[in-house]
Amino acid sequence: MEFTVDRSSSQPIYSQLASWIETNIASGEWQSEYKIPGEVELSKSLGVSRGSLRKAIGILIEKGLVVQIHGKGTFVSEPVNSQSFAGRLSVYQDLVLMGVPFTTEVLEQRIIPAPDKEAHRLDISPAEAVFYLKRLRRVKGGPLVVQESFFSAARFGGLMSEDFSRTGMVEIVERRYNITLEWTSHTISVAKATMSVASLLGLKVGDPVLFTESVLYDETGNKVETGLSWFRPDRFRLKTTTRREQNEPFYSMLGRSAKTGLNPAGSETQPQPLSRNPLKHHLAELLPLERISINHTVENWSEAILHAGRLLYSTGAAEERYGPAMVKTARQLGPYFVVAPGIAIAHALPQEGVIKPAFALVTLQPALPFGNSENDPVRLLIVIAAVDTQQHVEALKEIADILSNPVSRKALMQANSQSDAFDILTKN
């Protein structure tokens, strides 16, 4: 990026220089540990005085964007914090475990009526009392993040007496209420700094900030807290790790075939007998009559999954905790498991209670919304207990064949008894 002095601007040249360098850093043009050219060389190439360049570098040092090492030169700094939403629950835990010195200033701590959005996230009534906590975290004296937290006061009003300037929110809540905070869902976006946020983070009104909205859950899946965070983007780097979920290739194949009316090979589907192969009997073993429930009535999707989990538990295929684990997974990852119109396939990790490979099948009457606007409502729910990703892949393929056939799929959804559904699944 080229720099040109705007001599008609009221902004001093050193400030223009600082903004130009900051833009190079923010855009990735100058990455972490990039060595900035020497003072004489850079001032000459940019057509500015060394004094203006020194002032610009000084501003960037104060912001923590660059660092000067005696005898070596000036380098672009590493972001202060690298947050991974696949790991710890809070910024406090991140900073502590990374060994980064920081301070927390509690700006507000009081009981207030719940704002509409936060009431909705906590599943409470609008204007119901909530405990409100607002904090500013600083690293090396510079502001990093403004955080707001909302708790139902009916359950967590006792937090008013706690000191959040010295201890993390997660630690305080777990200790005081003897619960385990299990996971957090995040919505991440870029926002413009309001006057309040800008003044706290040392930014200009309208400057971009990294904005997150979160909901914190305990080990039973209950909502504990909802939070808002505004991060300085030049001092914070967000890292995520993405991997294919167990059985994701199966979901992808099923979703494509069910929506297009094609079988996995891409040819037009007609009622076809399942192929005869040595594992043909295996599907019947994985999904016996005892794990089939027809026209079951429940109030919501989580009860449907729990019912299917009990079918696995009652037949010795999984521990009792596996059903709640599937619900937790669904809440964490969202309704991605509603793979085709009217069809949902749920699971949890093997270590969350699987005893042996198994399926359970439930048809719902009436069909229920699972939160997937494209494929709701769900009529057919299949849950999977997998010991590993390969052990029952042939049976998964057979189910995909059945569900990708519109005739078989419709017949399965309309089955009037366990034996009818079993016959559809296992006929030659």
Question: Can you describe this structure?
Answer:
The protein is of the alpha+beta class and 428 residues long. It folds into three domains: 13-76, Winged helix-like DNA-binding domain superfamily/Winged helix DNA-binding domain (Arc Repressor Mutant, subunit A, Orthogonal Bundle), CATH 1.10.10.10; 81-239, Chorismate lyase (3-Layer(aba) Sandwich), CATH 3.40.1410.10; 248-426, Mannitol-specific EII, Chain A (3-Layer(aba) Sandwich), CATH 3.40.930. It has 15 helices and 15 strands. It has helices at 13-26, 39-46, 50-63, 91-98, 116-122, 153-156, 169-177, 195-201, 248-260, 280-286, 301-314, 322-333, 393-404, 406-413, 418-426, and strands spanning 35-36, 66-69, 73-76, 81-84, 102-113, 129-139, 142-152, 181-192, 208-218, 223-231, 236-239, 292-296, 343-347, 358-368, 378-385. A six-stranded antiparallel beta sheet has the order 5-6-7-10-9-8. A four-stranded mixed beta sheet has the order 12-14-15-13, with helices on both faces. A three-stranded antiparallel beta sheet has the order 1-3-2. A hairpin with a 4-residue loop joins strand 9 (208-218) and strand 10 (223-231).
Kindly estimate the percentage of residues that lie in beta strands according to DSSP: 25-35%
Count of DSSP H/I helices: 15
CATH architecture tag of the largest domain: 3-Layer(aba) Sandwich
Oligomer: single chain
Taking the sheet with the most strands, its summary is: 6 strands, antiparallel
Strand order of the largest sheet: 5-6-7-10-9-8
Domain count: the total is: 3
Distance between the termini: 68 Å
Derived from helix and strand composition plus strand pairing, the structural class reads alpha+beta
Number of strands: 15
In round numbers, the mean pLDDT is: 81
Order of helices and strands: HEHHEEEHEHEEHHEHEEEHHEHHEEEHHH
Unreliable sequence segments: 82-87, 243-251, 253-281
Integer-rounded radius of gyration: 28 Å
Shape: elongated
CATH domain topology of the largest domain? Mannitol-specific EII, Chain A
Helix content: 25-40%
Determine the CATH superfamily of the largest domain: Mannitol-specific EII, Chain A
User: What is the highest CATH level, the class of the largest domain?
Assistant: Alpha Beta
